[in-house]
Amino acid sequence: MGYSKQQEQASTSSIANHIGTASETEKASCLSFLGAGLQAVCCGGSKSKKKKETKMGNIRVEAVVVLQMKNVLDFNDFHASLHDGFKELLGHRVSLQLVSAVQADPENETRPRVGTPAFLEDWPKLPAAVAVGDTTFKVEFYLDEEFGTPGAFIIRNLHKSEFYLKTMTLQNVPGKGKVHFACYSWVYPADKYKYDRVFFANQSYLPSGTPVALKTLRETELMHLRGDGLGKLQEWDRVYDYAFYNDLGDPDKGEDKARPVLGGSVEYPYPRRGRTGRPPTQSDPKTESRLSVLASFNIYVPRDERFGQRKMSDVLASASKSIVQVLVAESKAVFDKTPDEFDTFQDVFNLYEGGIKLADSPALDKVKDMIPLEMIKELVRSDGEQLLKFPVPQVIQHDKSAWRTDEEFAREMLAGINPVVISRLEEFPPKSKLDPAIYGPQTSTITAECIEKFLQGLTVEEALNKHRLFILDHYEAIMPYVNRINTTGNKVYASRTLLFLKDDGTLTPLAIELCLPNHEGQDHGAVRKVYTPADDGVQASLWQLAKAYAAVGDSGNHQLISHWLNTHATMEPFVIATNRQLSVMHPIYKLLQPHLRDTMYINALGRQLLLNAGGVLEKTIIPARYAMEMSATVYKSWNFTEQGLPADLLKRGIAVQDSSRPHGLRLLIEDYPYAVDGLEIWFAIRDWVHDYCSIYYKSDHAIQSDTELQAWWHEVRYVGHGDKKHEPWWPKMQNQHELVESLTTIIWVASALHAAVNFGQYAYAGFPLNRPTLSRRFMPEPGTKEYAELEKDPDSIFLKTITAQMQSLLGMSGIEILSRHPSDEVYLGQNIDKEWSGEEEALAAFCRFGDRLVHIENRIMQMNGESDKWKNRNGPVRVPYTLLYPNTSDLSRVGGLTGKGIPNSISI
Description:
Layout: H1 5-19, H2 24-28, H3 31-43, H4 47-54, E1 59-69, H5 71-83, H6 85-90, E2 94-105, E3 108-114, E4 118-119, E5 135-143, E6 150-157, E7 163-173, E8 177-187, E9 197-200, H7 212-226, E10 242-243, E11 273-274, H8 309-332, H9 345-350, E12 356-357, H10 363-367, E13 379-382, E14 385-388, H11 406-415, E15 423-424, H12 436-439, H13 448-451, H14 460-465, E16 469-474, H15 482-485, E17 494-501, E18 507-516, E19 527-531, H16 537-581, H17 587-592, H18 599-610, H19 616-620, H20 627-635, H21 645-651, E20 655-657, E21 665-667, H22 673-696, H23 700-704, H24 707-720, H25 736-758, H26 761-765, H27 785-792, H28 794-801, H29 805-819, H30 840-864
Antiparallel strand pairs: 1-5, 1-7, 2-3, 2-4, 2-6, 6-9, 7-8, 10-11, 12-14, 13-14, 15-16, 16-17, 17-18, 18-19, 20-21
């Protein structure tokens, strides 16, 4: 019993290859430091005999290993053990070997010294023996006195399936005490790898400071993570590589499912995504083939980038509930007159109040085979019947009509789900730089006479000079696409919304301009109409419709640009480059890694289920099939240095530099919740990053000579964002200021910015009348049947204009999932491992960062309670602004639609 000769040779060769790319003679010398351990594995014997044989040194080091096992792993291993029971009894299926941080192999000084194998004992033999959660093993290593402090360990898994290795902690290392390894990685069976898995201790080293004994291991591990750029990647591959967005279309299913490749061209520049290596489609060799819908959750990303088991369970449960909601509502025809329309506003309220009786729905037959109803969290019982309800969105929890007020319409530009677009009006009337020969006159038709009656006694010029005029501009980006969008069945306008900052600190809308470009082949087809506030009659109804059209444009901008492009898409290259170029031993890797968690996987799912041709996004937002193409045109103006909050506020004219203010900035809208809270978060992150980087970089020369850091930044610029590589604004990464500002921007975008534009989606847009995503008709014109109906029944025209029933349900279900915090969420200022760093100074700085975030939490709650002073923090709908409430102090991790909390990363 035991290893075969072939297994012994494979093990020796694998470890030798892992240690370095040496000659065959050098590889053979690996037997000198592996021999005793492999002999123990090959010979077998009783546990007592095995321990005697593996005791090659006189120093015993105790270790605790923590891991999680898949249920299927244990079932397979149980059956495998029936055929190979002796080896299972010996516990020889998982071996660990310590690697010295300070001593080289006596036979070859280019390789580190490796200890004899130790084994995980008492592996659970039966599926029932495996509890949900962590499994802990105690391991004993025996080392020679010359071994020194361990700096890494090699692990080999001879089970039939993978397990999730969380940590290993050595308890009594001579001269060191405790040595901690923060692993958090899936370890697949050894035959899945061409190399052995290695994990490093939590001590950080710059490349130049790496102990010589670990230098080759460090370099080799990065080489494995980069891969060779060839072939289809499998789930156990750990390769991080780049590709264009060429997997959105499905031309084999028809021309209407074809989509342009995004990235690699002047016309459609785009950030890179993670490579999967799937073959091309038959119809178009430039388009990558797609997975089936059922296989979506198995889309390739490196396994450590996939959701954990708890989070996957949460997401699947939410997705299951959403499928049931849509199918039930579709088949039930809950709405009275027309199956695809909300006939009255009450029809919408019924989604949250009356619920849908599941027993009466034929759709249940469709889903019973797919989804166990016990997975659905939002089932409630009433009089013994199961009812399905959407949660009540916050925007209508306290008042069902406050969302219609002008004050709330304007407030949401400062504290809603898209508070990153509003800017100061710097010229009147506003004008665009688009070609007037193509799109018609580009100067707005809004006049001073239209708006001066709303300016509290000021003229337009005075209001401009006092910085009290603002604009929500959805003109420049959407105008080039209006004619194409309007051929899809949707009816969209390019819009400009002007606003005035009142004496009480709130905004009020002044006018909305709805614009259509020249028609194809016509010189004078442009249409520009201006609507102003009105309280009654048909003018009031037209004004409510104008606000809806403006909201539709803002909803599209939010999902495509503020949310998807400026957080998800632009951050993925940083995730890939960090794993390819920065060793896990690098201090900057340790700083960034919590902020990169799950991003590749949620983006991959997005490409597979939401962003693809005919996917949820195209069905629920106004640009339809042109959505992703439109985001590529906006990416042309993306500037990394403008993604930080201070730079963004200055660019939008919302803030001006003022050295007398705490952060050197003065907000022109003092009660701007997103900016007020955001600046506190931004500077807390910056101070933390500065303190952390100062530990490792004592001079600018240390930054310039850091080979991994420079390779990382070069790859971000020239590969990950390769279509923008020649832009002059890229930081050169030559000094501490550039390093700190760049890292702060990355962490800000991945944490706070994403939280601000994501987790309030259901609170505001879960009520589709407040944030419609589609418009299906043009504005009614006098003398038409629609205009007459508007005069008689304005709510009916409003409902027939905005998003229809099914698209609303689909969109609501989607954003309900996206707005939920998973139960295993890790928030800004928290870390999944308290010993993530081996440097006390780094841990102390992180502690100070957490304390500062708790102070910010208290300040936010205090300001939210002062509604008389800070009117925009709650507004008419009485929804307190908590989207930038860090939630660092909450250790319960309950999750759900909390409407607060800044996760570390873009993880949903």
